[in-house]
Design goal:
Helix content: 25-40%
Number of domains: 1
Shape: globular
Number of strands: 12
Strand content: 25-35%
Order of helices and strands: EHEEHHEHEEEEEEEEH
Structural class: alpha/beta
Number of helices: 5
Distance between the termini: 20 Å
């Protein structure tokens, strides 16, 4: 079974996500085709989606202007995985803490933009992540803070604050997994949940 993965490519770390998805798929023996998404009409063909980091106000404006936003919502409503990192987390949230961002409301969290500091305050930290046996080398760059969580599963915390959450088929991180060569979080966010979904479909248990 071949999968189609889409990376929302209006702005941000697009190629890094595409390469991480390809590596994670190869490690599982999955056949995946990665498509870059800049206009509407591509998301409905995707089994998996990534919403990269970058500039949240720009990403928010462009996904709405290009008609991609409602397609992302429909993708998640169908139970398909979405992985949102840093600015992608802000755009996917229910409350972005910034009137310039029109959030998608897919993650039941409130965020604060750039709360971990400016570009010069970037850092890497060994992060304990639920579902991973060994710490993950998390890269924080102008990272948002998750201020409040609703009905979500907190996957990781740093300095007592959530930095990775799961809300149904959506995983959001404050940090940038795509800037490492460690693809475990891409696997956790996109392929573990998708493997379970496809197993259910194949067994006839899915509704």
């Amino acid at each position: 079974m071949s999968l189609t993965a889409g990376v929302v490519a209006v702005q941000g770390n697009v190629s890094e996500h595409a390469e991480a998805i390809e590596r994670a798929a190869a490690a599982r023996g999955e056949d995946v085709t990665v498509r870059e998404i800049r206009t509407s009409g591509i998301v409905p063909d995707c089994d998996l989606l990534a919403l990269p980091g970058g500039e949240s106000t720009t990403i928010s404006r462009l996904v709405h202007d290009e008609g991609i936003a409602p397609e992302i919502r429909e993708h998640v409503t169908a139970g398909k995985p979405l992985f949102a990192t840093c600015a992608g987390l802000i755009v996917a949230s229910r409350d972005a803490g910034d009137d310039r961002v029109d959030p998608l409301g897919l993650l039941d969290v409130t965020v604060e933009r750039n709360a971990f500091g400016r570009q010069t305050d970037s850092f890497e930290a060994p992060l304990e992540v639920e579902g991973l046996e060994e710490p993950f080398p998390a890269v924080f760059i102008r990272a948002p803070v998750i201020d409040e969580v609703g009905d979500v599963e907190v996957l990781a915390e740093w300095d007592g604050r959530p930095v990775a959450v799961r809300d149904g088929p959506v995983v959001g991180t404050s940090f940038h997994p795509e800037l490492t060569t460690d693809d475990r979080i891409h696997d956790l966010a996109l392929f573990e949940s998708d493997a379970a979904r496809r197993a259910a479909l194949e067994s006839g248990d899915a509704r």
